[in-house]
Design goal:
- The chain is α/β, with parallel strands linked by helices.
- It folds into three domains: 271 residues, HUPs (Rossmann fold), CATH 3.40.50; 129 residues, no CATH class; 54 residues, no CATH class.
- Helix content is 41%, strand content 16%.
- The protein has 14 helices and 15 strands.
- The strands form five sheets. Strands 4-3-9-10 form a four-stranded parallel β-sheet. It has a four-stranded antiparallel β-sheet with strand order 5-6-7-8, covered by helices on one side.
- Helix 9 crosses helix 12, helix 11 runs antiparallel to helix 12 and helix 13 packs antiparallel against helix 14.
- The longest helix is centred in the C-terminal third of the chain and has 22 residues.
- 40% of the residues are buried.
- It binds one RNA strand through strand 3, helix 1, strand 9, helix 6 and strand 12.
Amino acid sequence: MVLRLYDTKTAEIRDFTPLHEGRVSLYYCGATVQGKPHVGHVRSAVAFDILIRWLRASGYDVLAVRNVTDIDDKILEKSAASYSPDFRADQDYPAEEPWFALAYRFEQAFHAAYDALGVLRPSYEPRATGHITEMFALIQRLIDAGHAYPAPDGSGDVYFDVRSWQNYGELTRQRVEDMQDAPDADPRGKRDPRDFALWKGHKEGDPETAAWDSPWGRGRPGWHLECSAMATKYLGEQFDIHGGGLDLRFPHHENELAQSRAAGDDFARYWLHNGMVTYQGQKMSKSIGNTISPEEMLSQARPKAVRYFLGQAHYRSQLDYRPGSLQEAEAAVERIEGFLAKSLGEQPVQLQLPEAFRAAMDDDLNVPAALAVLHESVRAGNTALAQGQKTVAAERAAEVASMAQVLGLADVPEPDGAGSAEHAALGTLVDHLLTERTAAKAEKDYARADAIRDQLTTAGVIIEDTPEGARWSIAAQTKGDTHG
RNA sequence: GGUGGGGUGGCCGAGUGGUGAGGCAGCGGCCUGCAAAGCCGUAUACGCGGGUUCGAUUCCCGUCCCCACCUCCA
C-alpha cells in the first residue's frame, strides 16, 4: 500500500512519494496570533497532527514546521485600539497592550489549546518577526527577477507584480481576469489591483517597535511573505507538503506559491487543505455570532471527546458542529475506553494496525473509514470478552490501542488528573462504598445495595458490575449546550 | 461573474455499478436480583427529472438547493 493524498494544486489524489526517501518535510500554516484560537484553528491542527502521526507510523521521519505569524495588520490594529481613550478592556483584551505582548499572549493561548487536545508540537515553530532578513533576501530576488517593484508613490511599499507572473492563479486554477474586482481599500502605487504587498512602508502612528529598516525604507512585512521565507529556510527550496485551512488557499497560498516560484524556488510538492468547521451548516464567524471556542468545548466534554469530534470527519470535509455533537463523541470515546479498560493488559510496544485501518489511512487519510475499523475491533473484542476468550480480546485491545494511538486519542491529557491526589482520595471512598454494596448484595439486601449505587450515581460516579466485581468511573460531563 | 466542494436513513458521517461502512439516538431480545456496560436482531436512505445499463445511490445530461473562496480568516 502506498499513501495517497489529495493535492489541491492538481485537484486529484496522487501517490505520495517524498523528495528524500524515508523523510517527509511538512510546512503547515498555524495562526496569525491576533486573537484567541477558535475551533477552526484546532480542527486544522488536529487534521495535520493526524497526518504527521500517520506518516510517522508509516515509517517516515517527519520534519514539521508550523509558523506563528506574529505581526500583521490586525495585531497592530487591536493593540492600537487598546490605547484608545474609549477602549473597553475585558479579560481577552486588556488596555494598553503592546502589539508584541498581545501576539505573544495569544501564541501561548494557541499552545494551550493544542496541548489540551494532544496535538504534538511541530519540529519547529518559527515566528515571522524572527525572519525579517530572510524576507529581505526574498524580496530582493523578486525585484531582481522583475516580479516585484517598490511602489512609485514613495509609500515604502513593495508589491508583487501579479501580471508579470503568468502562472499566477495556478494553485486555485483561476485566471486573473476572471477574479472579482477587489476594491482594494487603497490601490496606492499598485500596477494591478491584485498585486499584493511584500513589504509595507512604515506609516505615521505605527509603533516604532513594528518597523524594520529595509533597503526599500522602514517598514514591516506583508502578510504572505513570511511563510515563503520560513518554509524554504527550514525545509529547503523544495519540500514535500504544504498545508493549511481551505480558506488559506486563496489568496494566502496562491500568493506564497507565486512569490516563491517567481523567485526561483520549486516550493511545495503537495498542497493539502482541511475543510471548514460549520455551526449547523454555516461557517462559524464572529459577525454571525455562531462561534464556539475550544475553551467552551472543553467545558462541555472531556478533551478526548473534543479531539474525537474534531477528527472524526474526513479532513477535507466540512465539519458540522451542533448541540449534541460532543455528547455523541463522548459516547463513542467511552465505548472505546470501556473496552480497553476491560481487556487491555499492557500497552502494545509496537503498533498493531489492522490492514483495513492502514488501507483507510493510506487512502487520503480516510479517518471515518479508519474509525469504522476501530469500532469493529471494539465490537469483536467485546464479543470475545463476553465469550471468555481473553487472548482474542487482548489481541483486539492491542489493535484498538494502536489505532487510538495513531489517531492521537491516546495522547489526550485528562484534565481531571486520574493520578491526582483528589482522584486517589475519591477512589478510596468509592472503593469503601463498593465493598459495602458487595456485602449488601451477598446478603440479598438489594435495597441497601441500590441505595449505595444511587448515592454514587448522584455524585457522578458510574457503577458497572463485571465478573471481576464492580468498576467505577466518573460520569461524562452532561452540561447542556449553551449555544444556539 | 469566476473557482472549488456538496446534497446519503431520526442525527452525524464513509462508500460503492449489483450481496446496503461506522458512530450516536430508537425499538425487540439475551445477560443482570434490578440496573449499567456488553452482545444479538431490527426499521427508516442515497435532492429532483431524464438517459446509459440486465441492473445506478454510484456513470452521463439537465435541473433545484446548499456551502466555501475570489477582502482578514484554520
